[in-house]
Amino acid sequence: MVGRKPDNESMPAALITGASTGIGREFAYLCAHAGYDVVLTARSEPRLEELASDVRQRTSRRAFIIPMDLADARSPRQLYEQASNLNVALEVLINNAGFGLVGKFWELDEDEQMQMLQLNMGALTHLTRLFLPGFIARRRGYILNVASTAAFQPGPLMSVYYATKAYVVSFSEAIHNEVRGYGVKVTCLCPGPTATEFDKRSGASGTKLFKSGNTMTPLAVAQIGWDALQAGQSLVVAGGLNGLMAFLTRFAPRQFAASMARRMQEKA
Ligand SMILES: NC(=O)c1ccc[n+]([C@@H]2O[C@H](COP(=O)([O-])OP(=O)(O)OC[C@H]3O[C@@H](n4cnc5c(N)ncnc54)[C@H](OP(=O)(O)O)[C@@H]3O)[C@@H](O)[C@H]2O)c1
Fold this sequence. Notes:
Layout: E1 12-17, H1 22-33, E2 37-41, H2 45-59, E3 63-65, H3 75-84, E4 89-95, H4 110-138, E5 141-146, H5 159-178, E6 184-190, H6 198-202, H7 208-211, H8 218-231, E7 235-237, H9 240-249, H10 254-265
Parallel strand pairs: 1-2, 1-4, 2-3, 4-5, 5-6, 6-7
Helix pairs in contact: 1-8, 3-4, 4-5
Bound molecules: NADP nicotinamide-adenine-dinucleotide phosphate (NAP).
């Protein structure tokens, strides 16, 4: 079980990236309610402060904030060092921070695309690399990597984002296998469209995907990921319909799946 008995000062802690809003914010509450102290990171300091104060009030757990831009390649090590200097025993790592961009590959901003690669793949991989040796040594630890149903097919008009999430699934499933027998659990969560700031930030608000009426709440998505982590699952797709679509996509020709994905990325 991931959950622990609260009211014990020496309780272990969970580090959550992208905690300032959306799915990450819900992970913060889930971890704290399960008895973990939380270390919250994202760029927005005021939002992290407000969340940390609310977590402390509602759950009596300790909540720390480390504001940081994880699209900078130097940040994961700085985050690891700052988190290691807190008086907490980190036992859970939730790699949740990520963003997308909608548009033609050659027209989207080049710097933003490179930042997306660094955040969605680089920071997630680097943080996993930094925390895993400690988890292995202690024979206890939990890593939850947030991918997307975008991982299961090519994504025209969101090509880089879909490809980053395919990487997250492949990487997470491989590490899940590698850590078997070491007391460590690694799970990959694949949400479908979820009601957060993601669609507005990525320019996907008006797309058929987000107008389809199949949008889940961030709490429901986070709970599914958290439960799968406890159960030791390698991968979980959030929501029955999303799971069915991900399953069926396996049998479709890749360019047919790409055409379907493109249709969903077009404006409704
Ligand atoms: N919402 C969906 O439909 C959906 C579907 C599938 C997968 N996902 C995945 O779910 C995860 C969470 O997304 P969400 O839906 O909760 O989106 P969101 O509401 O936009 O939240 C994204 C979080 O990531 C943080 N973040 C963004 N850029 C960052 C950077 N450069 N450095 C550090 N933190 C950064 C944001 O905080 P700051 O802006 O304060 O830095 C925020 O806390 C992402 O990996 C996303 O790809 C979302």
